[in-house]
Amino acid sequence: MDYNKLSSFISSIPPFDGNQSDLYPFIRAIDAIKSDLNQSEFKVQLTQQILLRITGRAREAILTYNPSSWNDVKRTLITHFDTAETELQLQERLCSAVHNSKPTI
């Protein structure tokens, strides 16, 4: 794959601006590209092109934490833009974990 094809392929991915509903589609699209092209001669350009697809509030979060890899970028985006669990959801997870960890007699 040449650099122009790489650029046009990445440009076809809508930018991510911090909108939660776009978070996982964006991550899946980038993960698919990374798995196909991670070992290519354009690895550095690939990372730069991905970072250019992140805009707005999401870009601010990335610039604040300055992640060094796609996994760091992904973790930062999920931390800041994924839907937080409600108190009820956390209680349900805790009860489920406690219930599942009790030994059976």
TrEMBL record:
- Classify the source by domain of life: Eukaryota
**The protein's name:** Uncharacterized protein
Q: What is the lineage of its organism?
A: Eukaryota, Metazoa, Ecdysozoa, Arthropoda, Hexapoda
